[in-house]
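Example for tutorial group B:
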């Protein structure tokens, strides 16, 4: 079993009958969706929403019942990965380009459990470029605004074209270097016209489940 699978399957132990679940996005969340699908086939009764078109497709393939947002007023638990997490469970997410839907789903969940292999643990956020979702309109000016705050933004591309998120937006991968105050940077970015959201998840995750190289799993709590 790989470290991502180890963490993901431990997190799925927190899923109980009757829960409304947010399904994350990425290669770690993949294992959680697989395991939830297995338990659904064994009789687990849950309702779920997905944080990306890719996870929606995966959930359907695994027989997980997806419910329209209009029929739910929130979620009990979201299980999702991260690109980096620090000791206060501040996260950088968005490596897979799903940060906006992931943040909305996490925000409306009673609990968010982060799942990761131990390589994602950092003392300070910022080694991983911070994904910032921006609208296409005047993106050149938004990129210039990001550059003015030392973001060193790079518009994300996929093969030979600009990467477009599930929401029709672009992603600027920003290299701030070590981020001393993630909460302050998060606020500064949200105030910038043209920026939709960013990959800093502050105060959303209460628990992290980490797969360790020695085959153990540790649970970190804020
Ligand atoms: O795009 C995302 O936010 C993903 O959750 C990402 O941060 C983690 O992806 P991984 O599990 O494939 O490393």
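The residue assignment follows.
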């Amino acid at each position: 079993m790989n470290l991502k699978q180890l963490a993901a399957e431990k997190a799925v132990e927190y899923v109980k009958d009757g829960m409304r679940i947010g399904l994350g996005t990425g290669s770690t969340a993949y294992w959680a969706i697989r395991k939830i699908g297995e338990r659904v086939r064994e009789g687990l009764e849950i309702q779920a929403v997905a944080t990306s078109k890719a996870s929606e497709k995966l959930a359907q393939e695994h027989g997980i019942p997806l419910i329209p947002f209009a029929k739910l007023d929130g979620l009990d638990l979201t299980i999702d990965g991260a690109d980096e997490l620090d000791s206060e469970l501040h996260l950088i997410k968005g490596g897979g380009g799903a940060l906006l839907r992931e943040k909305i789903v996490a925000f409306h969940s009673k609990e968010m459990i982060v799942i990761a292999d131990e390589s994602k643990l950092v003392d300070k956020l910022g080694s991983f470029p911070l994904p910032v979702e921006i609208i296409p309109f005047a993106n050149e000016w938004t990129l210039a605004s990001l550059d003015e705050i030392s973001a060193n933004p790079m518009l994300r591309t996929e093969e030979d074209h600009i990467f477009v998120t599930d929401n029709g937006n672009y992603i600027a991968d920003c290299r701030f270097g070590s981020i001393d105050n993630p909460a302050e940077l998060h606020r500064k970015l949200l105030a910038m016209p043209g920026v939709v959201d960013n990959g800093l998840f502050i105060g959303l995750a209460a628990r992290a489940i980490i797969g360790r190289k020695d085959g153990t799993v540790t649970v970190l709590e804020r």
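The mean pLDDT is 97. Compare this with the pattern of hydrophobic and polar residues in the output above.
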